[in-house]
Amino acid sequence: MVPLRRDYDDYIQRAWEALSRIASVYPQQADTLILQLILPGVDELINRKDEPTVGGSIPWRSAENQIVGFRQVLSAAAKSAETQQRHFGRSHRRVATEFMSQLRMGQTKIGSFVITAISPTNPLPVRKDGQSYDDLIAPTGRQVVETFNGGLEALQFASSEYVRHLNGAVFDETVTSGVSLDLVKGMRRVLGNSPASETVISWSTQMSRDTSKVGPSAASRIVFEAQHAPALKAAVNRLQELDTKKQVTIDGAVTDLHRATPGEAGVVEVRVLSGSDVEQVLISLTDNYDDAVESHKAGSLVRVVGTQERINSKYWIVDVKSLRITDSQGRGKELISRSDEVPS
After folding, report:
1. Closest CA to 151 of 118, 172, 174
2. 234/118 same-domain check
3. What superkingdom does the record give (predicted)?
4. What residues pair up with 127 in beta bridges, in sequence order?
5. Rounded to the nearest 10 degrees, what angle do helices 60-82 and 93-102 cross at?
6. Inside any domain, residue 1
7. Within a domain: residue 52?
8. pTM confidence score
């Protein structure tokens, strides 16, 4: 029984007893039930870091890495909810920014160092080119959290497989489950040198397409332990290796050109519109450099087919098979050339 009058001395105690009783038969803790009552239609994501303490404290850098790393994981999940890619880098920042702006941070809970993220389940107010996405197109907060959960589960499973078999190929197929190089780097930062990192998702039952998240399975739990640290490092190396060189057909626009001396090779910078998950690529051209200049002047689009290769921190198109320029009237000019040696 809970007193109706809040000014009764035992009101708080009785209310807490009632919540605790409900929590004993309901798959959510009492404090999470309070959250659902106050903020209905939200999913709760909790990351708890198991860290040896001295007087209830941990090294500042360890706590800072937990927060920054968890933010990186959340941001990567938002990007993967929009499109699945091996590596995002600075691309798809809009959806990540919108998702992070919708999040709220919950109060610290009892236990070793805890971060609580509260995510609305409704569509994100994503805008593109001055227009709002339709609700059917825009990812919802729930879709981001589902991608977050699927990515961490796939990464944890692959990491456990790596511990047993030491085969980096186990990470190759995880991208389709929401894993990206960005997510792995974030999770690696969260775990750090600690014994374990636990992430628990309490799903709002007001919006769930997956019936397994209603009733006894209304919470998901993923744990990374110290034994997974080498596996996360291997995952980073594997995904970077796969990201290093690949065949691409890129549509884009010339944004910058540089040539030190007429007649020599020049560098053309192309802003990627489609065909690759990087924001820009560089092409070294000699014979067709002037065509690239004209394309830049006219605002034409270019299509380049070749091998995308990461050299230092930049992406180049080497072994160019074709280069096509298309003007605003749809008229195209096909250029076939070889790429010149990439300057060191």
Report:
1. 174
2. yes
3. Bacteria
4. 132
5. 120
6. no
7. yes
8. 0.68
d(CA 4, CA 19): 15
Say yes or no: 167 and 230 in one domain.
yes
Tokens matching residue 254: 């010339």
**For the segment 48-99, what is each residue's pLDDT rounded down to a tens digit?**
998 888 877 888 999 999 999 999 999 999 999 998 888 888 788 889 999 9
Q: Are residues 65 and 125 in the same domain?
A: yes
Rounded distance between C-alpha atoms, residue 201 and residue 111, angstroms: 16
307 burial level (CB within 10 Å; 0-12, 13-18, 19+): middle
Contact 211, 105 (CB under 8 A): no
33 and 135 together in one domain: yes
Residue with token string 């589960």:
153
Residue 98: inside a domain: yes
Domain limits for position 293: 259-335
Model pLDDT for residues 152-198, shown as the tens digit of each residue = 999 999 999 999 999 999 999 999 999 999 999 999 999 999 999 99
- Do 146 and 40 lie in a common domain? yes
Residue 58 Rama label (left phi>0; alpha psi -120 to 50; beta):
beta
